[in-house]
């Protein structure tokens, strides 16, 4: 009897032949279709009160559009979006979920430059993408990727001309990112500027092709920035602090364009330069000593640690000590800013991290075909990374920095007034 029931259930049970990927694509298709129907229904309800003289609705359904293939992370699905007929003059319904002419998800658009920069060449996309996205992704061929690089170049040109009216950058990081150009002899020196707005958000300000990070290249970049032009035209304040490598031609340029901007040398670059002047057997201990200076709780402790380093290495390795001492003041500028911001201000890591993939790609391939293509790819990567950046710590303190509030060893300085007659009272208020 049990065997009979089992056999009957096997005969009547539907056979599941779809793979997991096919189920995922079908589920995605149904969800998108349902979302599009809901979007149209909500739009129609909001316009349902609009009638002509005969009482007919001005906004009605109009069947469905032509089928199109949408490529997503789950694969390619075929969608027919519902259409709306709007008889009002100059009025047209546009779906926010599936805009006109969209053929691939924005997330996929972000993934393509990342895959390319991580070492996947245009020729490899023909084999790799169908494996990742299913056989329907055959349209994303090497030709498609090449066409996208031209689109990214257009987007980069438009981005360079964007308006920065209303922007106020309190901190800026600067660095030069070098990578190979396959069809040219010189390496591309990509000059990058990232800033912090008054609300604490980070933003890519500029990304330009510069010749060997020279002073002329940096000065041209700074003068061409819309915010730099506004500094002179409407008195917009210059950045309060710039963070960068001491070897950059940027510093001579910034003193001319933004003479009031303070300077902070990048500790990562400095430590690397100092260690290069010491034998390898001494580098681990020297690195620990340099980290003690870098992470000192106040300026006085940092100065004591610098003196200790100099005493230990001056006699036999004077060049290492000289390398550290020549930028001593600008290495410690961060002590004049909120302690919560020190983790952001001591290094150019906000630039180093997102562009690490650019450098990784140049080690695996011969790089982009041209300087324009290289800049466009760096631009797409930077903006994709920007979407995931978090605010600086204690963002509310950025506004105090912009207001020129004085900080000493990371703490706000409260001036003595007639109401504050003693240092004990001052400490109580500051606390």
Describe the 3D structure.
It is a single chain. This protein is of the alpha+beta class and 431 residues long. It has three domains: 20-86, no CATH class; 106-158; 168-367 and 377-386. It is built from 19 helices and eleven strands. The chain has helices spanning 2-12, 20-46, 106-117, 122-133, 142-160, 215-224, 226-234, 250-257, 267-275, 283-294, 299-313, 318-325, 328-331, 342-345, 349-352, 356-364, 371-386, 396-402, 423-430; strands at residues 59-64, 68-72, 75-79, 82-86, 169-179, 188-197, 202-210, 241-244, 262-265, 407-408, 411-412. The strands form four sheets. It has a five-stranded mixed β-sheet, with helices on both faces. Helix 8 links the parallel strand 8 and strand 9 (262-265). The chain is elongated and about 95 Å long.
Proportion of helical residues: 40-55%
Taken in chain order, the helices and strands follow as HHEEEEHHHEEEHHEHEHHHHHHHHHHEEH
What is the average per-residue confidence, as pLDDT, rounded to a whole number?
Answer: 76
Derived from helix and strand composition plus strand pairing, the structural class reads alpha+beta
- How many domains? The number is 3
* Annotation, overall tally of beta strands: 11
Silhouette: elongated
Can you summarize the main beta sheet? 5 strands, mixed
Spatial gap, N to C terminus: 83 Å
Which percent range describes the beta-strand content?
A: 5-15%
Q: Uncertain spans, ≥5 residues at pLDDT below 50? A: 1-14, 226-235
Strand line-up of the largest beta sheet: 7-6-5-8-9
How many helix segments?
19
> Which value, in Å, is the CA radius of gyration?
29 Å
